[in-house]
TrEMBL record, chains A, B:
This is Queuine tRNA-ribosyltransferase. It comes from Candidatus Campbellbacteria bacterium RIFCSPLOWO2_02_35_12. The gene is tgt. Keywords: Glycosyltransferase, Metal-binding, Queuosine biosynthesis, Transferase, tRNA processing, Zinc. PANTHER family: QUEUINE TRNA-RIBOSYLTRANSFERASE. Homodimer. Within each dimer, one monomer is responsible for RNA recognition and catalysis, while the other monomer binds to the replacement base PreQ1. The lineage of its organism: Bacteria, Candidatus Campbelliibacteriota. Its EC number is 2.4.2.29.
Length: 405, 405
């Protein structure tokens, strides 16, 4: 259940609370990614101590390894991984297409830059052909290959929901077809329309089986529908209207965007979706995106970026990212940020962290991930507070000026 | 300063306390290895919570990376790594010869098995020739190559102590020549005699410089001499007599042993060394070795084994080691050990740990390392308590019967 506590004047932004069987999520919130039932390099206590409210696992990965039956037997995702708070699972749609079709490493939530648009047309054609070659889509569902051993698997909307019922997260997503950011209009439209039919089937299957899940675990899972349509305004509007009319507990906004058009797209999508329901922006979470998303009605975010870049030594600071491996940090005995209250900044110097990365110690990833997640999770908390204090625009201007200067 | 609290009747074993500038070490104690100023995959809080009293860093590695000058500027090893307790550094002797000469991965603290003794003669010759080729030893010191970039470096006893003074651990070791376990008698004798001359030089250098270290940091480092002599009884006895007469604060017993002769060797070495001083067995720490060592007068141990095998999925249990990656554990929702009080056993199942290893999650190493270190650190604590309770032999028989059955 979603309660709106305060609204941003003349905008769609709001402060709220989403109540789940495993606790309340104060929104706007950044949800920490724990793809394979673990936040990479962190203990659940470290995740909780940095201020995270909820963790998002991945249906595609958890189905392949360890298997949703094992997580069900363990008592569900949060018992399995020892996380005492709300959990999400995404539907596996994005991974089926990106990892299953083998375009994963080049895939991006934003379209290719305009200055390579001629080139991107060729990439688009190429991706589409790889896409259709390695992933077989029909009306029923998608055949894909495991990224672990190449074995063949078949996901339908019903299968995705069955797996997510087994995994037992508090918030689950309808199964969608996720299209490459460089795909052409006609294919985006075709995929979107299929996603709408799959949304209906996801909802029907869940309504028929959720009761059972509820009875056996004491949990009532929330099911979110996903809006698609890529970077095309007419498709996004159509998708928001159709998905918005279905009886979902909340909504995810998936697929790719044009970076310049993110604010406009999120505004008209969220304006068309039911206002009283929670909205999650899937897989996007750079600082500027967070301000744009929240201003335009997004209530929660997830993104692998804070932990992924942390493992390469890239750290967020108020003045932009720094690469801690640079030799200038090897004799820098100051904190990453003087006024940061994260565990890493409270106990370690840049020199130590720089050493750990150079020495290839695993603990480097732990300390860097704690700092980056703290930075993003607490940025969203500060944005939340700024709406309550009616100082959103001041914070936005001050933060973005420093960060991108 | 070392205080003996209780002795094992008719044996050399004892319970004691070693007072360092950063706290008391209750002996016998297992010292956790943090080679590069970090216990692999663990935070200092996780290390403290599992019961560890002290951490041992490595002079060779820390000299090469980040450099002892950086650790000195950071305020010493425990400030640099955020460990609020005693620290050790070994002298770098073992690493100079094992990593520097490139025989590291095959090197063992015990001699080759007898059933391959013909073969081992050939290996011995080969190792000796590699040894003398890549590491140039003269009376002054040793020239070796960095395991990171192949650059050339020269360690003398004075240089090793200077580095260890800079790193600023509570307990440091004299520089020794560490010979391959398969080396022949004449070479062991020659190396041992050089080690004795180097011990004297280490002690002299430290006596002339320790005062300065003491004044600048408020710390008085303890310097331990190292007994060498390999598997040869006459050499070990000679080394114990000569090193034992020097004015060290304690003693390390280094080099290699014959596995069957460990108890006898440790007995006569510790019987010849001054009884009132603390003795550390370098780099040995399998459960049976701990009982043998403590019974024969060893007060502290260090060994990479608990964390190294943990990272491969090998876990200690009272009934011997298990490999958690085995498929039979993937659906085993019990703890590693029902009565284990470690963080891992209190919060996670075998199925989860098995999944984390298969999914190649870093957190697998963290959980496995916590369990293995807890197992070994607390085994030594239990042995300590058994001496206080006059039940050492009962514990030894019961434990070893279960563990090796």
């Amino acid at each position: 259940m979603f309660k709106i506590k305060k609204k941003l004047k003349n905008k769609l932004g709001r402060v709220g609370e989403f109540i789940t069987p495993n606790g309340i999520i104060e929104t706007p919130a950044f949800i920490v990614v724990g793809t394979k039932a673990a936040v990479k390099s962190l203990s659940p206590e470290q995740v909780g101590n940095l201020g995270a409210q909820a963790v998002l696992g991945n249906t595609y990965h958890l189905y392949l390894q360890p298997g949703d039956d094992i997580i069900k037997k363990a008592g569900g995702l949060n018992k399995f991984m020892n996380w005492n708070g709300p959990t999400f699972t995404d539907s596996g749609g994005f991974q089926v297409f990106s990892l299953g079709a083998g375009f994963g490493s080049n895939e991006n939530k934003f379209e290719f830059q305009k200055n390579i648009s001629n080139h991107s047309l060729n990439i688009s054609d190429k991706v589409q052909s790889v896409h259709t070659k390695l992933v077989k889509i029909n009306e029923d569902g998608v055949e894909f290959r495991s990224c672990i051993d190449g074995s063949r698997h078949f996901f339908t909307p019903e299968k995705s929901i069955e797996i997510q019922n087994n995994i037992g997260a508090d918030i689950i997503f309808a199964f969608d077809e996720c299209v490459s950011s460089s795909a052409e209009y006609n294919y985006q439209k075709e995929a979107m329309e299929r996603t709408h039919r799959w949304a209906k089937r996801s909802l029907n299957y869940n309504n028929n089986h959720r009761l059972e899940v509820q009875l056996s675990s004491g949990n009532k899972q929330a099911l979110f529908g996903i809006v698609q349509g890529g970077k095309f305004e007419d498709l996004r509007k159509k998708s928001a209207k159709i998905i918005g009319k279905m009886d979902f507990d909340g909504f995810g906004i998936g697929g790719s965007f044009s970076k310049e058009g993110l604010d406009k797209t999120l505004h008209f999508v969220n304006d068309l979706l039911p206002k009283e329901k929670i909205k999650h922006l899937l897989g996007i979470g750079e600082p500027s995106d967070l301000f744009i998303g929240i201003e335009n009605g997004i209530d929660s975010f997830d993104c692998v970026s804070p932990t992924r870049i942390a493992r390469t030594g890239m750290l967020y600071t108020k003045h932009g990212r720094i690469n801690i491996i640079k030799v200038k940090y090897s004799r820098d005995f100051s904190k990453i940020e003087d006024d940061c209250k994260c565990y890493t900044c409270e106990n370690y110097t840049k020199a130590y962290l720089s050493h750990l990365f150079r020495a290839q110690e695993m603990f480097a990833s732990t300390l860097a991930s704690i700092h980056n997640l703290y930075f993003i999770v607490n940025l969203v908390k500060n944005i939340r507070q700024s709406i309550l204090d009616e100082k959103f625009y001041e914070l936005k201007e001050e933060f973005l000026k420093k960060y991108y200067e």
